[in-house]
Amino acid sequence: MTVCYLEVDDEITSAIARLRAVRDGEAVLVVPPGSRIATSRINFKLLAREGNEQRLNLIAVSDDPQVRALAIAAGLPAYDSVANAEKALASFREQDRQLAERLGRAPSKTAAAVAGQMALDEAESTRVMPVSPAAAHASERVATPEATTGRARSEPDARPHGRVRWLPLAGAAVLLLLLAGVGYGAYLFLPTANITIQPSTTALAPSPFTVVADPNVAVSDVDAGVVPAQRLEIPVSVSGEFLATGVDTRETRATGTVRFRSENTVGAVPVIEGTVVATADGIQFETTQAASVPVADFATSTPGTVDVPVRAVRAGPAGNVEANAITEVKANLAAQLVGVRNPDPTDGGRRIDVRVVKEADWNEAIVILDGQLERALAAKLNDPATTPRGLRMFSESAQTGRPELSAQQETIVGTEAESFDLTMSSIATVTAVNEGLVDELAETRLKAGLGVDQQLVGDEVDVRHSEGNVVVETVEYEVSPSALVFTEPDIPSLRNAVRGKSIPEAESILDPYGMVEIAIWPEFVDRLPDQTTRISLVVVTPSARP
């Protein structure tokens, strides 16, 4: 036994070459996972065919069930291990030996090869070898001696004397038999009657009843007259920009610089922060930082000076004064020979009006958005795109959910702004109905009321219902189903009723059941057969209304 371990990238040509190198008549092909050869059943067919031609007991080994199934389908025995393959080869050798003993000679093929060829033949289409025309013609001409002898023995005697004598009697007998057969046939099959009945139809119209479409039920209830409805959610949102009408007045204080001038030659004069100076007409300013006025130089008569920032005590444009308008100091400074001037004008005193959002502005915005929200919902309800296909939406059942605002009142009211933006959104609910369910319930109830022998004409039910009346979130319909029905005749009973009757009598019996046509053959017979087997009665189903 030769074990051939194939590589993953081995091609079919490489595997066949390995088989041709086997010399001991037995080969085991070990196919690894992911092998290229295992990608096609044709490869295993080629391997099986090569094994047959090389007279090899050939077996494939793979631990992949799909690979083994592929090999077996191609006519190549396959096992999951080399050990099981060895056992199979031993069995094949025993089969070879037994086959040789029965044939009295060595078999032309090994047992594995025979098994592989049989599987291969089953996998391929069956071929039927045609028979040549000459062979077919020859088979027609072949006749056994026994057949020839039989024909010779069956040749009639050339002496005709006995047959001529009995010919008239034989003809008469045949004629009597023929007449008897015709009479018996007429007894069995004549006369016959063909009857066609098209049953009469009647209108079935039960009393109108109410069907309720309720979004709180899941399935239809025929007895209760309830069908499921759907509660649709419709999101709606509106936005707007609203002006602020409140006014908040703001004033700012003027600022500037004053220069303190000291003629005190004794020492420096301190000026504390908050020291008040003023104009001649009483507009006051206060220093915003502390300072010290230097001592005056007596020798040169040079006063000491220091510049100090000031701001107006009161806010507003009154604090904006001209240069050198600030001249007044407190008595304590004046007593120490200190004066004051502003070398430049003061500036920055303002009176400003600022827009502010009032509570009234907020409330007015809420009223406006609420009205816009209702109009937006109405527009969506009237838009066909809002209703899913197959449903009818009832806008009267719409209920608007609690509105949600994009901002809270406390964050808007009191803010300084010319305007403010606000969005109001809500999710509305509305009832929608598949009115086909209403029709189905009405049709089911009508069919449930049919009699035992009643049938619908064309299985057609005409259902009419009202437009629907909204009651809170449900919809009520007044439903009126109707249909044409007919009664299915009892064919065996009608046959018994009309057998042996004349045509008028049969028609009077069958007329209550609908339109009747009676045809008797032969036509000269005026009475229906007494045997029901000779009466054909066909019920033609009435056609549906146009």
The main β sheet shows up as:
7 strands, mixed
Cα(first) to Cα(last) distance is 85 Å
What count of structural domains? 4
The number of helical runs is 14
Instruction: Give the beta-strand count.
Output: 28
Kindly state the percentage of residues in helix: 25-40%
Strand content: 25-35%
Categorize the overall geometry.
flat
Average per-residue pLDDT, rounded, comes to 83
List the helices and strands and how they pair.
Elements: E1 2-5, H1 12-20, E2 26-30, H2 41-53, E3 57-61, H3 65-73, E4 78-79, H4 82-103, H5 111-123, H6 133-141, H7 145-153, H8 161-189, E5 192-199, E6 201-204, E7 209-214, E8 226-228, E9 230-243, E10 246-252, E11 255-262, E12 269-271, E13 276-279, E14 284-287, E15 291-293, E16 304-312, E17 326-328, H9 331-335, E18 338-341, E19 350-356, H10 359-382, E20 392-399, E21 404-405, H11 409-412, E22 419-433, H12 435-448, E23 454-456, E24 462-465, E25 469-471, E26 474-487, H13 491-498, H14 503-510, E27 514-521, E28 535-539
Parallel strand pairs: 1-2, 2-3, 3-4, 5-28, 7-8
Antiparallel strand pairs: 5-27, 6-26, 7-26, 9-22, 10-19, 11-16, 11-18, 12-15, 13-14, 13-17, 14-16, 20-22, 21-22, 23-26, 24-26, 25-26
Helix pairs in contact: 1-2, 2-5
Write up this protein.
With 546 residues, the chain is α+β, with helices and mostly antiparallel strands. It folds into four domains: 2-123, Protein-Tyrosine Phosphatase, Chain A; 188-229 and 434-546, no CATH class; 231-244 and 357-433, no CATH class; 248-353, Beta Barrel (Elongation Factor Tu (Ef-tu), domain 3). The strands form seven sheets. Strands 6, 7, 8, 23, 24, 25 and 26 form a seven-stranded mixed sheet that branches. The two termini are 85 Å apart. Residues 106-166 have low confidence and may be disordered.
